[in-house]
Structure formats: structure tokens, C-alpha cells
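Saturday, quiet lab. Running sequence design on the C-alpha cells for the scaffold JK sent over.
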């Protein structure tokens, strides 16, 4: 009969031993949720746990629920990094969309400015035609319907100018808003 050996360990020592075992299992590829079976031969360190001392060997099946290398925190960090990358990608895409919108609006503003200049010339021509038709009518060489048509044409050209001017202002305001976001 061997003399009884007793050893006292603190909870911190037990914790360190379990952590060492968990990290060793992790290095072997054991992951959270895996089941582990431990086979131990009887020796002085394990004799205290043996329920049948007459048998030289025993098997223990257990399920460990100890964090392996703090995988939950690592997972949270990975998820946060992925979210950061997605946010950076969204920011880049939004900036690209604003740059595209800004360039498109700039071209639209240039075209609308040319259209306004053209409409100004059309208004001058329509006014001159109305004046000419009124002179013809007052001299008895023209018809009232020609005067009315010339006046309608002049009003249509002015209305068209007003619509283009409104579109120009809207495009300019949108361009300024996009520029303010891009270049704060």
C-alpha cells in the first residue's frame, strides 16, 4: 500500500491548469462545441479521483465549456473589423456617387446656361417679330391673326426661358449641395 499523498491547489492554480489544457486542445484543433474524451492512467496525481482503486486504468468522458483562447472576443473583434470595412466601402461608394452626380450636374448646368443664352436671343427675335406684325397691322398691311400668333410665340419663348431658368437654378443648388458634402 502506498502512502496517501495529498496536494492542495488554489482556484487560480486550477484556473491556470485548465487554461493551459484548453490552449493545448486549441492548438490541436479543438473548437468550441467539440466533445473531448480524456484517458488517464492511474498515478499518484489521479488516484484521488479514481472510484475503483483496484483497477489500474480508467476513462473519463467530459464536455469542456472553457473559452479556448478567448474566441468570443476574437470573433467580436473580427466582426467589428468587417463592419468597419463595410462602412469604409459604403463611404467610398457614396463619395464616388457624389463625384459622379457633381460632374453630371456641372455638365447639365453648362448646357442649361447655353440654352438660356439661346432662349434670350429667341425672346429678342420674338419681340421684334411682334413689333413688326403690329406695325404691319396698324399700316393696314397685316392681319390681326398674325399679330396674335407673334404675341403667342413671344409668350411661349418667355415661358420656355422661365422653365429653363428654373431647371438651371435647381441644378445649380444640387451641385452646390454635392460640393458642400464633398469639400466641407
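Result came back. Writing it out in full:
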Amino acid at each position: 500500500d502506498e502512502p496517501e499523498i495529498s496536494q492542495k491547489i488554489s482556484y487560480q492554480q486550477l484556473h491556470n491548469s485548465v487554461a493551459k489544457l484548453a490552449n493545448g486542445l486549441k492548438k490541436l484543433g479543438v473548437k468550441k462545441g467539440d466533445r473531448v474524451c480524456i484517458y488517464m492512467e492511474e498515478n499518484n496525481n489521479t488516484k484521488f479521483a479514481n472510484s475503483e482503486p483496484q483497477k489500474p486504468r480508467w476513462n473519463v468522458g467530459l464536455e469542456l465549456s472553457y473559452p479556448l483562447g478567448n474566441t468570443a472576443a476574437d470573433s467580436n473583434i473580427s466582426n467589428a473589423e468587417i463592419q468597419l470595412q463595410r462602412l469604409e466601402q459604403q463611404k467610398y461608394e457614396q463619395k464616388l456617387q457624389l463625384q459622379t452626380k457633381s460632374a453630371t450636374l456641372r455638365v447639365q448646368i453648362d448646357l442649361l446656361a447655353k440654352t438660356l443664352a439661346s432662349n434670350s436671343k429667341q425672346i429678342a427675335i420674338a419681340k421684334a417679330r411682334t413689333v413688326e406684325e403690329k406695325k404691319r397691322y396698324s399700316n393696314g398691311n397685316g392681319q390681326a391673326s398674325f399679330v396674335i400668333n407673334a404675341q403667342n410665340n413671344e409668350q411661349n419663348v418667355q415661358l420656355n426661358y422661365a422653365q429653363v431658368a428654373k431647371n438651371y437654378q435647381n441644378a445649380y443648388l444640387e451641385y452646390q449641395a454635392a460640393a458642400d458634402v464633398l469639400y466641407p
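Notes for JK: Confidence is low (pLDDT under 50) at residues 46-64. The longest helix spans residues 71-138. Ask whether to fix the surface positions before the next round.
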